[in-house]
Design goal:
The protein has about 250 residues and is α+β, with helices and mostly antiparallel strands. The chain is built from five helices and ten strands. Strands 1, 2, 3, 4, 5, 6, 7, 8, 9 and 10 form a ten-stranded mixed β-sheet that branches. The longest helix is centred in the last third of the chain and has 13 residues. The radius of gyration is 19 Å and the shape is globular. About 35% of the residues are buried. InterPro entries: PsdUridine_synth_cat_dom_sf, PsdUridine_synth_TruA, PsdUridine_synth_TruA_a/b_dom, PsdUridine_synth_TruA_C, TruA/RsuA/RluB/E/F_N.
Length: about 250
């Protein structure tokens, strides 16, 4: 068996998330159907660097899988790109060592969150940007983001259902970029993110920007580890897994 890593993108709108689920359309299931076909109809189970939720998008998700024999990397990429549905794209396929694992090899992730801040929601962005109709203070949001940077226990920003015990993560970048008068991009880079962590952080930052929470709330949530003190989980359509960077 030969192990390959692929960099893929997908529009999460019509998926119930990345991971296979019963009677639901998922990214993993669609790709595994094609991989199994290419593997002489012998079942292939892929691994991903992380799981995205329903409605969440990806520019640079990483997966790995094992196939019989050795394949030309570009031909394999082309076959996967053309045989998977149009809301999945294969940007690159490379052969990797047999012990390489997209989830467990040391890496960093970059997430981006797009927010439309307008009185009326644009119909053209409704599937690809979250929407907030009320006033937001950029300075307050930037102050809140600064308090997220560093190594912290992010239990207070984790949704129920998180399976990992160690909730300490390091965030090296939490940045706001104003795209135009009605649009923002938030960038988060770190060595790992917990279940719905980015969306929970965003829900809190938006509340702070709207003046319904003090900037000091971020430190309070981190210290108390109390999810009830954080804001609501922000909408999924604004979130993108931008890049996975391996450090080995």
């Amino acid at each position: 068996m030969t192990r390959y890593m692929a960099t893929i993108a997908y529009d999460g709108t019509n998926f119930a998330g990345f991971q296979t689920q019963n009677n639901q359309r998922t990214v993993q299931e669609e790709i595994e159907k094609v991989l199994t076909k290419l593997n002489s109809h012998q079942s292939v189970i892929l691994q991903a660097s992380g799981r995205t939720d329903s409605g969440v998008h990806a520019h640079g998700q990483r997966i790995h899988f094992d196939l019989q024999g050795q394949r030309d990397e570009e031909r394999l990429r082309f076959a996967l790109d053309t045989q998977t549905p149009s809301d999945i794209a294969f940007h690159e396929v490379t052969q990797v060592e047999e012990d390489f694992h997209v989830r467990f090899n040391k890496h960093e992730k970059i997430y981006e969150y797009f927010l439309e801040n307008s009185k009326v929601r644009s119909p053209f962005y409704r599937l690809y940007r979250a929407h907030f109709r009320y006033n937001l203070d950029e300075d307050l949001m930037r102050q809140a983001l600064a308090d997220l940077i560093g190594t912290h226990d992010f239990t207070g920003f984790t949704a129920a259902g998180a399976t990992v015990e160690d909730k300490v993560r390091t965030i090296t970048q939490a940045e706001l970029v104003k795209l135009d008068e009605e649009s923002y991009k938030f960038i988060f880079r770190g060595n790992g993110f917990l279940y719905k962590q980015v969306r929970n952080m965003m829900g809190t930052v938006i509340k702070i920007g709207n003046g319904r929470m003090p900037v000091s709330q971020i430190k309070k949530i981190l210290e108390s580890k109390n999810r009830d003190l954080a804001g609501p989980t922000a909408a999924p359509e604004g979130l993108y897994l931008k890049e996975v960077i391996y450090l080995d």
